[in-house]
Amino acid sequence: MAGKMRPHYFLHISFPHLLVVMITYVCRGIGGILRNDEGAWVGVFSELIGIRSNMFAELLGIKEGLIFCLDMGLSRLEVETDCLEATKLIAKEDVSTHQLGILILDVRGLMKLFESLAIKHIFREANQCANGLARMGS
Fold first, then answer.
1. What are phi and psi of 128, to 5 degrees?
2. Where does the record place the RNase H type-1 domain (predicted)?
3. Domain residues of the chain, as ranges?
4. What CA–CA distance (Å, rounded) separates 75 from 39?
5. In which band, very low, low, confident or very high, does the pLDDT at 86 lie, cut at 50, 70 and 90?
6. At the fourth CATH level, which superfamily is domain 9-137?
7. Longest dimension (CA), the chain
8. CA–CA separation, 129 and 138 (whole Å)
9. From CA 29, how far away is CA 58, in angstroms rounded?
């Protein structure tokens, strides 16, 4: 297949958002769906992560999704998440004083292992399948 580009894959990452008043830590799961460029499911993952903050769950979901894709031997990836803040933190230059800085740096390190990778924000309504997998993990 000389000259032909490999398929582009999409990874949808999510965790269940719960409406909680005055509580910032709840039991959570993470999950994601891997689709090819034609929209067909290639793989899924779901995992219980216990009592964590919302942002920790979002960033860990992205990290575990990247590891999942690397294990499958993928090199071109587009990650879609419904957490705009996570995409901003990953792109932010200095996270040395952020409480989740180590996790953010882990994600950045994994991103460098791909030939092509983009992380983009999508609306929650477009991420319902991944949300369901995350609920299964919790």
1. -65, -40
2. 29-136
3. 9-137
4. 17
5. very high
6. Ribonuclease H-like superfamily/Ribonuclease H (3.30.420.10)
7. 57
8. 15
9. 10
Report how far apart, in Å, the C-alpha atoms of 74 and of each of 36, 57, 108, 121 are: 11, 23, 17, 21
pLDDT tens-digit readout, 46-83: 888 888 888 998 899 899 999 988 998 888 888 888 88
Euclidean distance between CA atoms 108 and 137, whole angstroms:
24
- Nearest 10 degrees: Cα torsion 32, 38, 39, 45: -20
- Give the pair of three-digit tokens for residue 94: 């200095």
Q: Which residues pair with 28 in a beta bridge?
A: 50
Give the whole-angstrom CA distance, residue 69 versus residue 18: 27
* Range list of β-strands (E), the chain: 9-14, 25-35, 41-53, 76-81, 116-121
Cα separation, 23 vs 108, whole angstroms: 29
C-beta separation of 80 from 40 below 8 A: no
Whole-number pLDDT of residue 40: 79
Distance from C-alpha of 131 to C-alpha of 16, rounded to nearest angstrom:
6
Q: Evaluate if pTM is beyond 0.70.
A: yes
